[in-house]
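User: Small ask, check this?
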Amino acid sequence: MKPVPQATSLRRAPVQRRSAERLTRILDACADLLDEVGYDALSTRAVAQRAGVPIGSVYRFFGNKRAMADALAQRNLERYTERVTERLRATDAQGWRAAMDAVLDEYLAMKRTAPGFSLVDFGNQIPVGTRDAEPNTRVADRLTDLLSDYLDRTPDEDLRRTFLVAVEAADSLVHLAFRIAPEGDERIIEETRELLRAYLARVLDRTAPPHPPHPPLHR
């Protein structure tokens, strides 16, 4: 189970600060419009108008609105990783249960507050409700890389598979919680938390295999 490569939907990566700021405005506008009008009514022209940029600037980065939504999903994953990292540093949380609380809580916070997140989260769901395995695999890969040192675990295939199963289960249950209630049904969210703890305890409460020794430095 090799890590899934990151999605790349940009036609051209920004190289100057002004260009990066323009790309940020385009993605912000895309996210806002997804919440306001949905994906079907979204257009590159409307995004350009909302962002205050020429339509040519949008096409410089993206070939179509699907590519824009994909880039928004990738930005969401980057921001999510940053939020989890900052939370772990700020709380100085100990143990995998605290780490998993941070992982779930930050996802719920983005689900409730991040513009456009309900439609794209970490991977395009267009048409609405259509999902494939790749976005969740990317999230699992990111969590494996982010948390392996924190948990003192080797980021091997077993840990990667464990996180993938946890992410898939949490993804389905959180979507169920938000179908039942706009802010997420708290009882289902708590059931999700308990399910994750019970599943992960089987693996993470065992004696952690040591990290492989570093090769000796050649002099």
In short: The two ends are 35 Å apart (CA to CA). The CA atoms of residues 39 and 127 lie 8 Å apart. Residues 1-7, 214-219 have pLDDT under 50 and may be disordered. DSSP finds nine helices and no strands in the chain.
